[in-house]
């Protein structure tokens, strides 16, 4: 079975599908009619109900935001250590 190409959907499209669901159309009917995965539709419904935004950035928990920030800081610190190691090697040669 060939792998399906990843599709992207606009926020307006997602909002329309959520509204169809909220107005009584079944999940199964929406998934079938628009060739979606049930998990994608469920995620859009949850996002619409919690934040009203379909952007992943707007739907992260505070723990997820903290983890991303800590990973960025960790990467920066690793780079600084590498730079200091190189500087120490260069200074040691002089």
Automatic annotation (TrEMBL):
Highest taxon, organism lineage: Bacteria
Example GO molecular function: transposase activity
PANTHER family xref list: BLR1542 PROTEIN (PTHR33215:SF11), PROTEIN DISTAL ANTENNA (PTHR33215)
InterPro entries xref list: Homeodomain-like_sf (IPR009057), RD_transcriptional_regulator (IPR051839), Transposase_8 (IPR002514)
Gene Ontology biological process terms in this record: DNA transposition
Pfam family, one: HTH_Tnp_1
Keywords: Coiled coil
Residue ranges of coiled coil: 60-87
Protein name: Transposase
SUPFAM superfamilies per UniProt: Homeodomain-like (SSF46689)
